[in-house]
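Complex 419.
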Amino acid sequence: MLTQAPKGTRDILPSDIYKWQYIEKLLAGICDNYGYKEIRTPVFEHTELFHRGVGDTTDIVQKEMYTFMDKGERSITLRPEGTAGVVRSYIENGMPSLPHPIKLYYNITAYRYENVQKGRYREFHQFGVEAFGSRGPSIDVEVISILGLIFERLGLKDIALNINSIGCPQCRSEYNIRLKEYFQPELDNLCGLCRTRFERNPLRIIDCKEEKCKKYASNAPALLDNLCGECSDHFEGLKSGLENLGIRYNVDKNIVRGLDYYTKTVFEFVSNNVGTQGTICGGGRYDGLIEACGGKPTPGVGFAMGIERLLMEMESQGVKVPEPGCMDIYIATIGEKADRFAENLVYRLRCNGISAEKDLMNRSVKAQMKYADKQGFTYTIVIGDEEIERNKAVLKNMKSGDQKEVSLDSINERLKSKV
Ligand code: HAM
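Predicted structure with histidyl-adenosine monophosphate bound:
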């Protein structure tokens, strides 16, 4: 156990980290262009925030949260997603009084006690954006277009955008009556959880993963066919905005999403490549969430993308990211005096922005050169007593094999101008 990471968690190893750093940089660059600013919130929050935010009838809150009492007897939960924490921070930090829209993005770890499988983990990474304050569909279009641009920049193809509208509390209350009428005759055949959902939030039955519930849910009336005038206009605005940007979409009446806060727009980007975990990202509008969390009524819209799933998709489509460059120079040494000299030289090189290493393992010069070769340094230089005395050593380009004798004083300048 000691040498095994907990189930559902994974290390991101040094050999892979360049992919993560590449993606994070790309995402931050796109967000900058769109005027979204980064926000960092705590890994854990008061449990109540997720009950209010994510919703009591969701799978996340009912089955998947990592909740514990801290030493001060407070109920604490590791965030299962990012939106609720960002909303809490928006309210707490006076953002409502700033000019709107407030546009934020984040890169976080999130925690859900899930059945672990490919693309489904207990600790996973989300990149998300949240935009507060704008009611019209134009900002929904903006948020969706961020994802379109990310996929385009990464060179990913065949990722389908599915959209739906799940209306507002007004159209939903009328729809819930119809939904209850539909499920009533089959109530005894639904799972235990859905029988409680029937009373509290029948829309959730449509999202149930149990086969027996899925069977009845597939023919249930769709909310999209029961929208009020305002929600219907909003959805039309969304569609025409997407068309205006040339973003292709499918209308999927079955999307309800696994969190309770959504109103009007909901969407997902899906791929067939990732198998059963085909949803790379999901999001939507949540016009009632800020108020439910204790703020003034303020509309909001956003999404989150699973980075593990994005990487899986990139891998299955053969998308490569640039590998990190080589270290500039390895200074091999013979003897104590050369070692002290190299200690000072690598420091000076590093201060000048040149990546350099020297031996730290007390290896023979032959073993040092073998190490330098394996690590793929661009240059090597071997320094011993004689080289120090003559102030000269042979600088070798490991890629081309070229060698030339250079003065030790000139190494800094030479490498700065990449010799
Ligand atoms: P979500 O659909 O629960 O939405 O999660 C968003 C994305 O996170 C999923 O599409 C998936 O890529 C990834 N994801 C979720 N669970 C796992 C898991 N167990 N393992 C690996 N990846 C996972 C939200 O979290 C909302 N907060 C999105 C949002 C932001 N809506 C509005 N603003």
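The mean pLDDT is 94.
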